[in-house]
Every structure is written in structure tokens, then in C-alpha cells.
Design goal:
By secondary structure, this protein is an alpha/beta fold. It is built from eleven helices and 20 strands. The strands form four sheets. A seven-stranded mixed β-sheet has the order 6-7-8-9-10-11-12, with helices on one face. Strands 13-14-15-16-18-19 form a six-stranded mixed β-sheet. The longest helix is centred in the last third of the chain and has 18 residues. The chain is globular and about 65 Å long. The structure holds fe (ii) ion.
């Protein structure tokens, strides 16, 4: 932390430690499509550009520093300067929301005697997992810097035995290959011919053994052809982008004609129906949340029974489901075709946040 700036890692630490801090988002209302949990939003963009505090002068602020945030940190720096002139302890978030895209937090729980750590990219809503039995661990859908998983594993004394992805991602750059390389661990991907680098293919029914447990692969195509869910002892399911907390995956990101989209939507219907036939107490841990994830340490998940009761889309017959899904397709995630190219090549650009900035748009509710 310098005199008037704070890094993403430092702000992340303050929020995780529940230290008093006010996050002040000064972007124009029209520029806000995702935010930092708990941030106060005050549209002061025009005033700040003219060198005035505008509505920021009226704020009654709580104890602790004020962290100003904008898109990349320039307008926020003006706010910081003006607030400091007024005697407020203000700091600018370095790199703004673009850099915040990489911020993460974690939650942990026990399922069937296994420890499950949920590693959440708070801004983009990407959810990844470390599942442990007898100090052996499997990492699922690594989406933050590989060093984060290395540290979480080391801190707990766990040894990774496999790094797996549920599918070839389109909304974020997969860190799984880099993590598997760093740890000298097997990289497992669902069977497909898109990834242009060595991996161990996973097919329906395959078992990924760790400690005294196994994750069992269940092919759940539709979001993508190869999409796969990993089942833990039928008490938890890691569903990737097939089934979310209150929505289903989108079948359109690989492009194609309307008929091709409809046929993938039919596959999605079959996959979602198959997942919802699991026991009603089976926990569902998806690959994404649709909202920025708070620093509350609480696992984001639901149960098969809850989804059966609350997600009307999931109860539709095939024809109605396909019709509803195709009618509700949201705009494409930013840069999705370039992200897919990187993921198929197994590469990471120097600064991932440039490609990955922006809201998550993986779900259809
Ligand atoms: Fe996806």
C-alpha cells in the first residue's frame, strides 16, 4: 500500500479479514455491469472529470479508509486526490475493476469425509474447487493464478494428484494446464479433440481416485459437447457450466445454425434431467455464480431437490425447454472466441485480465 494507492491483493486481504473499509465505486451507472461486494456506488464520473467531488462531497463515511474504484483507476485517482484534500483517508484501487477481475476468496466445508475448498473469483463469479481425501487432492476448473492453488494446497499439507476441467471454457482462461505443470500432476480433460496439448482424457464413468475416495465422471453434454460433471460419492456434484444454482448452461457458445443450437439444447435437457435424477440431497457445486461473491466464507451451492423445486426451466419437457433456452440466450461473454482459442492451445496471455474483464454471461435462467 503506498500513500494513496492499494493493490487488489491488499484490498482482498482487508475484505477477507473483515477490516473496516469503504469501497466507493465512482463509475457512471451505465458502466456498471459487475461490482465489488458491499461497494457504495455513487455516479460522480462527470464531476470528477471536471475536477469536482460532486455527490462525493455529501457522503457520510464509516470508519476506516475509503477505497475508490473505477474502470482502470484513473478517475478514481482524481476522487482520491480530492477526498484527501478534504481530509478523507482515501486510496485508489490500482488497476480498477479490470485488475479486480483477478480477486478471489475462499470457503471450505466437509462432504462425505472429504474437505472441499471453493475458490471463487469474486468479480467474474468463476468457481473452482479443491477436493481432498487423506491429504490427496483434486483441483477442478482452476480459474485464478496457479500460485493461489499451490499455496492453498501447501498451507493444508495436501498433495495434488490430478487437475481436471469440466469442459473447454469460453468465459475465462483455464489455469489448469499451468497448475498441473507447476505441480507435476496429471492434467485430465473430458474426451474431445479440441485441446492441442497432451492431457489424460476422461470418459463417462471414469473414476479419478484420490485418498480413499473417487470422483466419478458423468458426461453431461449440451453447454459444450464434452461437458462433464464430477460426482463425489453421489453426495456432491461439480457441474461446471451445465447446471448452476438457479439456471442452466447456454448451448450456443460454439456457434452454429439454429438447428445445431437446438440439438445442443436437447442434449442439455437430457443432461440436466439426468443430474436432477440424482438423490435430492445431492449438493450441486457449479462452475459459476451469477453475482459477485461476498467475502463471507460461505460455500455457494444448492441441492438437487432445491433446483427441482425452484428452477422452472428444469421441469420443462424437451420441446418447451429447447424453445425457452433458445429464446433466452444472453449476449456473448466478452472476448469469448479469443478465450476459447487460448484454452484450446493451453496458453495464457501475459495479462489475462485484459481478455477476461467484464461480467459473467454463462447462464440461462
Ligand atoms: Fe463454459
Amino acid at each position: 500500500m503506498t500513500a494513496d494507492r492499494i493493490s487488489v491483493a491488499e484490498l482482498q486481504e482487508l475484505l477477507a479479514a473483515k477490516r473496516p473499509v469503504t469501497v466507493l465505486d465512482v463509475r457512471s451507472a451505465s458502466d456498471i455491469d459487475w461490482e465489488i461486494p458491499g461497494a457504495i456506488q455513487v455516479d460522480a464520473y462527470g464531476d470528477l472529470q471536471s475536477g469536482r467531488l460532486g455527490p462525493l462531497a455529501e457522503l457520510s463515511l464509516a470508519q476506516g479508509p475509503v477505497v475508490t474504484v473505477c474502470g482502470v483507476g484513473r478517475t478514481a485517482a482524481i476522487a482520491t486526490h480530492l477526498l484527501r484534500t478534504n481530509g478523507v483517508e482515501a486510496l485508489t484501487l490500482d488497476g480498477g475493476m479490470r485488475s479486480w477481475s483477478l480477486a478471489w476468496n475462499a470457503a471450505q466445508t466437509t462432504i462425505s469425509g472429504c474437505q472441499v475448498v471453493q475458490v471463487r473469483r469474486t468479480g467474474k463469479g468463476c468457481l473452482s474447487y479443491i477436493v481432498e481425501s487423506q491429504s490427496e487432492a483434486v483441483v477442478i476448473d482452476a480459474s485464478v493464478d496457479p500460485s493461489v492453488y499451490v499455496r492453498l494446497l501447501r498451507d493444508r499439507g495436501w498433495r495434488p494428484v490430478a487437475v481436471v476441467d469440466t469442459h473447454i471454457h469460453a468465459d475465462h482462461l483455464s489455469r489448469s494446464r499451468r497448475l498441473a505443470d507447476l505441480e507435476g500432476t496429471a492434467l485430465l480433460l473430458p474426451t474431445q479433440d479440441r485441446a492441442l496439448y497432451p492431457f489424460r482424457p476422461v470418459a463417462d464413468g471414469d473414476r479419478i481416485v484420490f485418498g480413499s475416495m473417487a470422483l466419478v465422471a458423468m458426461h453431461t453434454p449440451g453447454h459444450t459437447e464434452e461437458s462433464t460433471t464430477y460426482l463425489l460419492d453421489n453426495t456432491a456434484s461439480f457441474t461446471g457450466d451445465t447446471l448452476f444454482l438457479n439456471s442452466v448452461g447456454r448451448p450456443d457458445l460454439e456457434g452454429g445454425t439454429r438447428q445445431e443450437l437446438a440439438s445442443r439444447a436437447r442434449l442439455l435437457h437430457m443432461s440436466v434431467s439426468r443430474l436432477l435424477q440424482l438423490p435430492e440431497a445431492t449438493q450441486v457445486f457449479p462452475g459459476h455464480a451469477s453475482q459477485p461473491i461476498p467475502f463471507d466464507g460461505r460455500m455457494l451451492g444448492t441441492t438437487v431437490g432445491t433446483i427441482r423445486n425452484t428452477l422452472a426451466l428444469a421441469r420443462l419437457e424437451e420441446v418447451a425447454f429447447v424453445h425457452a433456452v433458445l429464446a433466452r440466450i444472453p449476449p456473448n461473454p466478452p472476448n469469448h472466441s479469443r478465450i476459447v482459442e487460448f484454452n484450446e492451445r493451453g496458453e495464457l496471455p501475459g495479462d489475462p485480465s485484459e481478455l477476461e474483464a467484464g461480467a459473467n454471461r454463462c447462464a440461462i435462467a
